[in-house]
DNA sequence: GAGTAGGGATTGTTCAACAATCCATCAATC
DNA sequence: GATTGATGGATTGTTGAACAATCCCTACTC
């Protein structure tokens, strides 16, 4: 016997939105977002309406709706009468993103004691996935697992709005990641620190965990800004 | 002699954006946002494309671009094939907004010690403006001064991204404010508490200030949710 | 009363057109 | 030689019309 008699109905209901219930503009935005976070669309690249619309198989108007969405997510910038471009982060942007991350992620750790067990489990799962990907030499996957880990930390706040903020912050940060020379050199040192962080949380020592997270973010920020040169 | 030889050039560059550099879609979005935050467009109201486009003097396509912006700001909701509506907050939404506010505003207070003096001055200015508006019986203005006060608290973080998050949170919250019966009854008790909060900050007692702010937000949230009934 | 077949109204999307703006190029001026 | 001015092509900004898809109300049937 499966769990509840209506479990499959719930699954259908949950997946309902993802089917047709979305406009083409939203789907094109998803497509572009994927290309950007995967690093295929590099910062500074221009997105011509006519050409891109033809490539995506949508009209200019629909494409422009997609652009508005991604501009609000700070992945694209819109220069009036000039077009839209993939955002290029300044060193100031990177600093501000880390400022916001420190606030939201540290708050997450402070709420670790009262967080539901499945939220804590997600922390461990993300770190484990990162370690496994590292063992397999799949460094891009290490990167996404790392991002999942930090989303899970912030999710300890238990706030959908905080979740969304962090999702946007980390998507933005990917714009900077792709200017790093080697994904491996950037991510490898953090594998052990992530594991240590989870251990501290599971041991209930949130104070030490927060101190460790701050140090973690400080060094990552410094490394990123150093690579930026700006 | 004026300061640097290029100082006026910098001023021009800084003011450059504010001129004509905005699309009609953005201007229409501003218009609608004003109507919503002023409470003239009530939650649940439907915004028909044809009719509204005619009223605003823009085409449907341009109007739809405006809609996308406001949907991302969570002031409108878009139901596929049904249209866009002014958002109606649930009790859960209100709770989540206050959860996020607690995080960001308390963090602001914790940074009060290292914040620049003009940021602290803005706190005092907002509270004073609220007191003056109350004396004049202008209760809507008391409300906007209160919002300015809380934006100033969060601004102590010194992060543009946090500023934007809080701006959106408070804009959303206005959707709930307008369901309150009397603006006066809602805002009046908080005038004295705001003043006390500023005093604590100026005295450097950020711990007491944070405690007071939490209590403040707790009661405001409870009051709002009680009025909601949901 | 429950179910169901129109059918009008609204949204989703495309297309074509034109004005406004940008940008590279070249010419003219001092 | 460097700055300014004019030219023209390319791209964006915005509009209007068109049509398919969908929703929702209504009238009808049983």
Tell me about this structure.
The structure is a homodimer of 230-residue chains. By secondary structure, chain A is mainly alpha-helical. The first copy, chain A, folds into 2 domains: 82 residues, Winged helix-like DNA-binding domain superfamily/Winged helix DNA-binding domain (Arc Repressor Mutant, subunit A, Orthogonal Bundle); 137 residues, Up-down Bundle (Four Helix Bundle (Hemerythrin (Met), subunit A)), CATH 1.20.120.530. The first copy, chain A, contains 10 helices and 3 strands; from the N terminus they run ααβααββαααααα. A 3-stranded antiparallel sheet of chain A has the order 1-3-2. In chain A, α7 runs parallel beside α9. The longest helix of chain A has 23 residues. The interface between A and B is medium-sized, with 27 and 27 residues. Chain A binds a DNA duplex (30 and 30 nucleotides) through α4.
Low-confidence stretches of chain A: none
Which CATH architecture of the largest domain in chain A would you pick? Up-down Bundle
Spatial order of strands in the largest sheet of chain A: 1-3-2
Largest interface: A-B, 27 and 27 residues
Q: Tell me the number of helical segments of chain A per DSSP (H or I, 4 or more residues long).
A: 10
The count of strands of chain A amounts to 3
Query: Alpha-carbon distance between the termini of chain A?
Result: 61 Å
Largest sheet of chain A: 3 strands, antiparallel
| Alpha-beta classification of chain A | mainly alpha
Assigned CATH class of the largest domain in chain A: Mainly Alpha
**CATH homologous superfamily annotation of the largest domain in chain A:** GntR ligand-binding domain-like
Count of structural domains of chain A: 2
């Amino acid at each position: 016997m499966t769990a509840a008699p209506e479990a499959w109905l719930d699954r259908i209901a949950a997946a309902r939105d993802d089917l047709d219930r979305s406009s083409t503009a939203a789907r094109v935005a998803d497509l572009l977002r994927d290309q950007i976070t995967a690093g295929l669309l590099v910062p500074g690249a221009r997105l011509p309406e006519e050409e891109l619309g033809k490539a995506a198989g949508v009209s200019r108007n629909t494409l422009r709706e997609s652009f508005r969405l991604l501009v609000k997510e700070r992945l694209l910038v819109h220069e009036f009468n000039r077009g839209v471009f993939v955002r290029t982060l300044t060193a100031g942007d990177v600093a501000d993103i880390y400022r916001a991350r420190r606030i939201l992620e540290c708050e997450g750790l402070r709420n670790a004691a009262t967080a539901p067990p499945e939220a804590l489990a997600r922390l461990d799962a993300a770190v484990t996935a990162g370690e496994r990907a590292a063992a397999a030499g799949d460094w891009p996957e290490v990167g996404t697992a790392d991002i999942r880990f930090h989303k899970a930390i912030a999710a300890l706040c238990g706030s959908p709005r905080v979740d969304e903020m962090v999702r946007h912050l980390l998507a933005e940060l990917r714009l900077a990641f792709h200017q790093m020379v080697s994904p491996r050199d950037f991510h490898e040192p953090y594998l052990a620190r992530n594991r240590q962080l989870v251990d501290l949380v599971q041991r209930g020592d949130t104070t030490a965990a927060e101190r460790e997270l701050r140090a973690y973010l400080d060094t990552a920020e410094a490394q990123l800004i150093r690579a930026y040169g700006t």
